[in-house]
User: What shape does this take?
Amino acid sequence: MTVEQLAKELDKIIPPELSEPWDNDGRMVIPDKNAEVTKVLCALECTSVSIAIAKRLGCNVILTHHPLIFKPLNSLSESDCVGKRVLECVKSGISVLSYHTRLDILSGGVNDMLAEMLGIKNTDAFVPYGRVGEVEEQSFESFVNTVKTALEVPESELRLVKANEKVSRVAVISGCGKDEIRDAIASGADTFVTGEVMHSHMVECKEWGISLICATHYATERFIARKLADIVGKLGLKHDIYEFVKEEEYGI
Assistant: This one.
């Protein structure tokens, strides 16, 4: 399978029509669309470490959730944090494909996985990429422990707002959910789980009466590399998964 054939297959599985208008995902860097795919590295994002690991493992495709190129580039320079990675990929013959909001929205994608990991049942979309559903009624502290354990995030990294003693209806948005707090409230949720918000949003949650569990952008999305690996595996391609926690395994 060539890089272009892989990109087309992924567009069928993760349709570009799902992407939010402001997003930029899909083909990021394609040095040679006709190159045969040797091995795919699946990761949350294409960092310099990701590229080094891909080269070490013989991967000529990096498949990510976060776009390598989000805003238009006015120039390419090794002094720029995005430009240097783009240039390194081109020099190394590594293609980068990224699937961002379309993978957030996709049935079975990031937010469905997050809801499932937290034991949320009977889920519905309350915004295109958010999910809301029910959990067995429990104390706020008990559900915080569920989040901490399921996402493998240290309690010291959690940011909490306790606005209700009990948790029974939970809304989730992976990554950054700061702009969807009112939508979460409108969905009837008593608790909102997301990756990151600003201090002012934590105050708003308390004032509006919705509990908040902010579990870091990374912890609420890193597992998507496994979903991407599952997809390319079903396409019959060799692959590996890179999560930041595995850096030592690669000698980085």
Notes: The radius of gyration is 19 Å.
